[in-house]
Structure formats: C-alpha cells, structure tokens
Design goal:
The protein is an alpha+beta fold and 354 residues long. It has two domains: 126 residues, Creatinase/prolidase N-terminal domain (Creatine Amidinohydrolase, Chain A, domain 1, 3-Layer(aba) Sandwich); 222 residues, Creatine Amidinohydrolase, CATH 3.90.230.10. The protein is built from eleven helices and 20 strands. The strands form six sheets. Strands 4-3-2-1-5-6 form a six-stranded mixed sheet. It has a four-stranded mixed sheet with strand order 8-9-12-20, with helices on one face. Helix 6 links the parallel strand 5 and strand 6. Helix 8 packs across helix 9 and helix 10 packs antiparallel against helix 11. The N and C termini lie far apart (50 Å).
Length: 354
C-alpha cells in the first residue's frame, strides 16, 4: 500500500494538485487491497484517509492500520472531507473525473471552496504495470480457470445445454477458490460460435465448434481464457480455420515482449489470419487484465503504445464466419524483458468430444 501511495504522491506536481480524492471502487481496492464498493480515499501530501461506513470499519481498521487513518463519517461524508481539507490546507483537489458522477460533483462544488482538478486516467496508468503481488493473484485466478477447463471437458455430455456448461464452469471456479467470475461466461456452440460475445442459452450443445470464454477472480484480480472445442468430428475446413487461429496466436506470443509496439503485435496475428480469412477477425488481439477484466494496454490496431515489463495482457485471435461458426484461442501472461510469460496451461490442440 505504501509504495502505491508514494507513487501517486509523486504525480501531485505534474497533476497540479495538493491532494487526491478517490471515489472509484477499483481505485479504492488498488490502493488498499480492501474491497469496499462504497468507500472513498483522500491522499494528501503527508497523510492518507479512508472513509469507510459502519459495515466496513472493523475490517478496515484491521487491514489499513498504520497506513490509512480510517474515518467512519457520522452524517455527510463531504462535511468530514471539508474539515480535513481545511486542516490540510488543500487548495487544488484532484478528483476522478472519469468516474465521479455529475450530481455528486456539483454537491462538492457547492460546499467546498477549493479548485477541483480532474486527474483523468492517472490511476489507470499506474495500474498498467503490475507488481509481483498482483501477478501472483492473477496466476492463482488463472490456475482455477485452467482447472475448470480440465473439469468441463471430462464431465460434458451431449445432453448438456450451453447454460449447463456455463453454470458448471462457474460453480467449479467458486468451489475451488474464486471469489467471483471475471465476467459473464460465454459458452456458445454451432452457428452461435461465430458470435465473439454470444450469450449462452438453454439449447442443447450443437454440433461444431463450442467456444468457452471465462475467468475467475482472486483478491480482486481477474483471469481470462478462451478455448474452442468441437462437438463431434471437425471437418477439413474447420481444422484449417482452427489451426490458422492457433498459428496466429503462437506467432504473436513469440513476438510479444517489453519494448514491442501494441499495434505491431496485433498486426502479426492479423496478417496470418487475413491471408485466407480477411475481415473475419473483427476485434483486437488482446487487452490488459487486472482489477478489471479490460484494462490498458490494448493489443489493438488503434493503440500506438509500447509494452512495458509488468503489463499483463491477453493474446486472443479469432476467426468468425457469420452464420457458420467461429473459433477463438486465448491465453494471458505478463510481459517481461525478452518475452511474455504465459500463465495459461490448458492444452490448445483441437479437442473433439463425443
């Protein structure tokens, strides 16, 4: 916690602020490792305050001791905030203008005679590079996800529905240590596999590709994995499509390392896919993952940034032929000097079931 607070304070001069008031739940968890969706933080040049209501104060006092002064506001939080701002002689207060709603901001402006400064994506930029504790939790989340895939291919039957598959994956992950699922699980089969973010339904598994995109959460940190299997036997064209996706992914993984341009990483995979499937890869190669399932950096044609050591990203090319079928293969890992260290351990050869 102390390191992240120090890092945030180092940005005060650049942001032209005397303190920063954080109201986004993700920022709260990032700086405290403590999950309170209704909490708020005030970081000044010398002190750090955590506003936690009665439901959370006991836990907050235990977990934040020695770093934050925990305040349980009685009455309106903005009144307590105003008192501290006066005591700390804050003139320019940074706020998360990308997250604070207008109604709350207008009320703050009425009561606090100070200058408000939007800090934009300053916290999100800090979150791009993960420390080893964050990486350890992402690895734990991915281990649960890998185990869930091993489980589902063993217990899946032809009589299961897409909803059954999604529910079984989610139940397994919760039972084996996940605090939540990373996002709404995707399990779509047959023609629906051509929909990158298709929604599972109560229909029985259809012959052809079955795409499963799912992940677990551990200590707030997400995993993200996609595997495509085949219900029944794959024909020659299906195998060609699957192997093209796999080649694109493996080539991109070989290319990714610290110092590589995100656009160029996407281009490596896109060039392979577009040789025979131009226009059938409509999303980006990957995205950052952490306390949120989609974070920066993006491995995208539109993201002209350089990868840094400590970025955690997915690598997930896909091919989707509308009305026919689709396939995606997704791993995730941490960018290091000279390579990307892949966390995903699930097999990638085409699995044919039943």
């Amino acid at each position: 916690m102390k390191e992240k607070i120090s890092s945030l304070r180092s940005k005060f001069t650049e942001l032209n602020v005397d303190a920063i008031y954080l109201t986004c739940p993700v920022s709260h968890r990032y700086l405290t490792k403590f999950d309170n969706p209704d909490g708020a933080l005030l970081i000044t040049k010398e002190n750090a305050y955590a506003f936690e209501d009665f439901r959370y104060t006991e836990t907050a006092n235990e977990q934040l001791k020695g770093v934050f002064t925990v305040i349980e506001p009685h009455g309106k939080r903005k009144d307590w905030l105003g008192d501290i701002i006066k005591k700390e002689k804050v003139q320019n207060l940074g706020i998360e203008n990308l997250h604070m709603n207008l109604y709350y901001f207008d009320n703050l402006k009425k009561d606090l005679d100070i200058t408000f400064v939007g800090i934009g994506s300053a916290i999100e930029a800090m979150r791009e590079v993960k420390d080893e504790w964050e990486i350890e939790n992402i690895i734990k989340a991915q281990k649960i996800t890998d185990d869930a895939f091993s489980h589902i291919v063993k217990v899946m039957t032809p009589d299961m529905t897409e909803n059954d598959v999604a529910a079984e994956l989610e139940y397994f992950m919760r039972k084996h240590g996940a605090e939540d699922k990373s996002f709404e699980t995707i399990a779509v089969s047959g023609k629906k596999s051509s929909m990158p973010h298709g929604v599972p339904s109560s229909v029985k598994l259809q012959k052809g590709f079955l795409t499963m995109d799912f992940g677990a959460v551990v200590n707030g940190y997400h995993s993200d994995m996609t595997r495509t299997v085949c219900i029944g036997k794959a024909d020659g064209e299906m195998k060609k499509l699957y192997n093209t996706v796999l080649e694109a992914q493996l080539r991109a993984i070989d290319f990714i390392k610290a110092g590589v341009n995100c656009q160029e990483a996407d281009g490596i995979a896109r060039e392979i896919i577009y040789k025979d499937y131009k226009g059938c890869f409509g999303h980006s190669l990957g995205h950052g993952v952490g306390l949120e399932i989609h974070e920066r950096p993006n491995l995208s044609p539109n993201f002209d940034k350089i990868l840094k050591s400590g970025n955690v990203v997915t690598v997930e090319p896909g091919i989707y032929i509308a009305g026919k079928y689709g396939c995606r293969i997704e791993d995730m890992g941490v960018v290091r000097e000279g390579k990307i260290e892949i966390f995903t351990r699930s097999p990638k050869e085409l699995i044919e079931l039943f």
